[in-house]
Structure formats: C-alpha cells, structure tokens
Amino acid sequence: MWSSIFLALRIIAAFLAASWIVYWQKLPISYNFIFFIAVIGAVTGSLFESIPSKIDRNIPVPLGAGMTMWIFEEFRYWVPPEKMLVALIFSLFLGAMAYRAKIADVSALLSAALLGVLIIVFSGPPWFLLLLTFFILGGGFARYKYAYKESIGIAQAKDGIRSYENVFSNSTAALVLAVAYGIFPEHSLPIIFAYMGTVATATGDTLASEIGTTAKGKPRMITTLKISEPGADGAVSLLGELAAIFGSAIIGVLGYALGISNDFLLSVLITTAGGFFGTNIDSLLGATLQKRGLLSNSGVNFAATFAGAGVSAVIYLLIS
What we know:
The protein is mostly helical. It folds into two domains: about 1-120, no CATH class; about 125-320, no CATH class. It contains twelve helices and two strands. It has helices at about 1-25, 30-50, 60-75, 80-100, 105-120, 125-140, 145-150, 165-185, 190-210, 240-255, 265-290, 295-320; strands at about 220, 235. Strands 1-2 form a two-stranded antiparallel sheet. Helix 6 (about 125-140) packs antiparallel against helix 10 and helix 9 packs antiparallel against helix 10. The longest helix has 27 residues, at about 265-290. Keywords: Membrane, Transmembrane, Transmembrane helix. It holds the Pfam family DUF92. One of its GO terms (cellular component) is membrane.
C-alpha cells in the first residue's frame, strides 16, 4: 500500500520538476513525453531502492533511474498518458495481489510493475497476463508438499516468495521480445512464438523443480544418467519432465485463449516444444556450468529462457 503511494508521489514530483524545467527553458519537449519518462524513472528508482544492498542507495537509485530514462529519451518513444496510466495501474494492481498472496516481495512487486508497464505499452495486457501466469504457478507450486521439501533441505527460501532476482532472471527475455514486438511489427509472428516459448521455459522449469523433487524415486543426472539426489543441479526425473510438459502446454493454451496467438494447434505444439527444450537446457547448464561455479542459478534461468525463445521461433520459421 505505502509502496504504491510513495511511487505515485515520486511520479508526480518527477513530472512537475521536469515540466518546470521545460517551461522555463522553453524546451521543445511535449508534456506527454515528460509524463512517460517520469513514470519510467519513478518506477525504476523505486525498484532500485527496494533492492537490499550494502552500497549507499544515493548512487544506484538516481543512476539506474537516469540511465533508464536516457534510453527512452534517445529512442524518443512514448505513449499517450492515458495508456501509460492504465498500464501502470493494471500492473501495480496485479503485482499488489501477488504481494498480498505472499507470492512476491516488495522488490518483486516493483519489478513486475516495471515489466508490466513496458510489456503492456509495447505489446498489450494479454502479454503481461501470460507472464504473470508463470509467477502465479511458480509461487503456488513452490508450496506444493513444502513440508516434505523443507525436511530434505530443498525447499525454496522464504516460503517460495519471489524477489526481484527471480523476476528478472526469468523475465528479461520476455521483456526484450515484448519490446521487439512493438518496434518490429513486420516480424510479429516469430516474436509471438518466441515470447510464448520463453514464458513456457520459465514455467516448465519451475514446475519441473517444484513437482519433480517430490518424486518417490531418485532422479538422474541429465549428463550421465547416474542416480542423483533430489534438488541437485542438473538432476531430472520422469515426474519433473512431465511437469515441464504440463506447465509449457498451459502457457500454449493460455497464449491462444488470451488472443496472443490465433492458431491453437501451433500455439500448443510450438510453445510446449520450446518450453520443454528450454527446461532441459536449464538442467544441462545446471549440471555443467552451475556446478563448476561459472553460472549462478539466476544466470542459468536467464540463459535457458532465451534458449526456449530461440527454439520456439526456429520451429515456427521451419514449419511456416
């Protein structure tokens, strides 16, 4: 509640300060553009402030907000204030619901708000709703047999509540593709399937981890097929693989239901294939680079979601 109020005050303050400068300096900048930049800067600044850090916040907050505003100023991209307000309110509302449901912390709420604003502005609310499905399913299944997972030491920290790190490691590819959809409409179809593929990868991987670790039998290492321990990096099980297919298929079905794709069969098949492949790339990277300390869990998620997107786009291009 207070986070939303402070965010609104920051947006107003940023808009008034910038408007005053533009007015007195007689700069040729529209107030619509100023409002767009003010929202982007305020949300980014609030996000940086919510991230725990040993560094003085007086450095990363203005620097992060300033760099983000500069990027959009360079592109001179903006949308009407009414569309920006709808995007902000809608994404904040959904993020607040996730926070109240204890699926996300404050940093994740603000991360989702920033992602939501950009995704809605560049591609539309259905795209953000599809991404939000991943967070809802991930947060929900993190609590599946939580007591058992906690007893064997593989339960998610903080009862599975998501933070900014989880949001960005799993959603950066989705954000890039949503922005690309708005900028490159001539390539909309491969981008659509790539987007659904990256969300499917994040969803499939999360469900594979949260459900697969509860399997009765021992999992096997993806690189050697030797018996491993539940929760080990790179360990896979039949239950986990089925969960990955299930989660990926849900994203394909929802992508069609939300109107992102207008072909049900392609939506389900391509998205499921991309999500399943991306999930296993995640396991492969976990068994190799993560085990050697070359990648963190977030780095593995980041790479796998881009891989899932790429596979989905390639499959579409091959069969279209």
